Amino acid sequence: MLYMAEVAGRRDTLEYEMAEVVCAKECPGAWTYPDIQPVLLREARRRGAI
């Protein structure tokens, strides 16, 4: 799944299984699922979501 959100604020501490939260203008170089995530991003762009 690909989720998009507008972030209004964030906490200083992390919860659940997240190791870190990073805000970036570019996509990461190492994907968790490299065969799927680029396809989802292309589809989101095609639909005008990003």
Tell me the total number of β-strands: 0
Radius of gyration, CA atoms, in whole angstroms: 13 Å
Report the mean per-residue pLDDT as an integer: 82
> What profile does the largest beta sheet have?
none
What is the N-to-C succession of helices and strands? H
Which descriptor suits the 3D outline? globular
What class, by secondary structure content? mainly alpha
In which range does the helix fraction lie? Answer: 10-25%
Which percent band covers the strand fraction?
A: under 5%
Low-confidence stretches: none
Helix count, DSSP H or I runs of 4 or more residues: 1
How many angstroms separate the termini?
15 Å
Q: Gist?
A:
The chain has one helix at 37-46. The protein has 50 residues and is mostly helical.
What does this structure look like?
- The chain contains 1 helix and no strands.
- The protein is globular and about 35 Å long.
- The longest helix has 10 residues.
- With 50 residues, the chain is mainly alpha-helical.
- 0% of the residues are buried.
Brief descriptors of the model:
50 residues, mainly alpha, 1 helix
List the SSEs and their pairings.
Layout (H helix, E strand, L loop, with lengths): L36 H10 L4
